[in-house]
Amino acid sequence: MATGARTDTGRVRDGNEDRYLVREERGVTLLAVADGVGGSSGGEVAADAALVELGLRFFGAPPDRATSDALAEAMRDANAAVLRAASASGHHDAATTIVAAAVRADQAIIANLGDSRAYLIRDGASRQLTEDHSGEMAHAITRFAGDVRGIQPDIYVESLRPTDRLLLCSDGLTRHVTPEEIAKAASGEDVRVAANALVDLANARGGQDNITVLVHAPTRGPTVTSTAGRAVAFIVFALLILVTIGGAVAVLFAASSVPPASSARPSPLTASPTASESVTPTPTPSPTSEPSPTAPPPSASP
Fold first, then answer.
1. 81 in helix, strand or coil?
2. Contact, 36 vs 75, CB < 8 A?
3. In 83-95, which positions are buried (b, 16+ CB within 10 angstroms) versus exposed (e)?
4. 20 to 30 A Cα–Cα from 24, which one of 37, 247, 284, 291?
5. Which residue in 54, 20, 23, 28 sits closest to 214, CA to CA?
6. Using CA atoms, how far apart are residues 99 and 122, in angstroms rounded to an integer?
7. Beta bridge partners of 110
8. What is the rounded distance in angstroms from the CA atom of residue 219 to the CA atom of residue 221?
9. Who's near 69: CB < 8 A, 6+ residues apart?
10. What is the CATH topology of the domain spanning 2-222?
11. Sign of dihedral through CA atoms 99, 118, 215, 16?
């Protein structure tokens, strides 16, 4: 996963009351932007307390708890943390917006309070995922962390594609930059370049408020084609091993069933002459040694 992040004071404000969080543990990335309100240092106190508590509580939730429940509970804990920090610091009106996203693989759970926003950029177009909690007055918010009445964040669930971009920002960006311009800048490969470009554009158009931008690229999981290709390669490899082993076994079996070759010395079981016999054939008797068929038999004595 990759996240580009930048926060900037802008061209008008003396200090920066925006804060952001990027934290990854156990395969989950938690992203958040807080835009502190309350004047003086009250906004900084609220934004700091909110995001510290948000991270601690979210990652401290039991592993079997649903991500959406863990994020909503962490937002409520962040509200309590802001109230404690406001009381301890003397800034009793300190408060902050929060927009947060918990990303696991191809799923994002988004929660928000106030007018800090989350956008999904897909196929060159941007879509606002969150709804502003705004009042009738300009930049007035109706939901925020630091509310003594308690809070109820909105929760959204989105499926992400490998080429999507998830963008979180404070209203210092959206005061000056249109959704179309956000989509164009955030669609590039380098999310850090995108975050810098958007902050620079807001500043070039006046930078009337603090500006914070997070641009996140989801994990690129293995495609179906590559997975199938690896499966086919494994099957072919296994078959080659089986053929090789089978061939070796066949050769060994054939070799064990062939009789040994005859040696140059005759075997005692063959019909060759014995040691008492002459190796040379007996000559045929001469014809002259046989009696002549015309010779009269010897006469008997009287």
1. helix
2. no
3. bebbeebebeebb
4. 37
5. 20
6. 20
7. 101, 156
8. 6
9. 61
10. Phosphatase 2c; domain 1 (3.60.40)
11. negative
Here the tokens at position 249 are: 């076994």
- Which residue has tokens 């835009």? 35
Quote the pTM value: 0.74
What residues does each domain of the chain span? Answer: 2-222
Two tokens at 115? 């007018």
CA–CA dist 61, 204 (Å, integer): 42
How far is Cα 69 from Cα 63, in angstroms, rounded to an integer?
Answer: 11
280 CB burial (10 A radius; 0-12, 13-18, 19+): exposed
Per-residue pLDDT of the chain (302 residues), as tens digits, is 599 999 999 999 999 999 999 999 999 999 999 999 966 679 999 999 999 999 999 999 999 999 999 999 999 999 999 999 999 999 999 999 999 999 999 999 999 999 999 999 999 999 999 999 998 887 789 999 999 999 999 999 999 999 999 999 999 999 999 999 999 999 999 999 999 999 999 999 999 999 999 999 997 654 443 444 455 445 545 555 665 665 554 545 555 554 544 444 444 434 344 433 334 444 444 444 444 444 444 444 33
Place of tokens 């909503």: 72
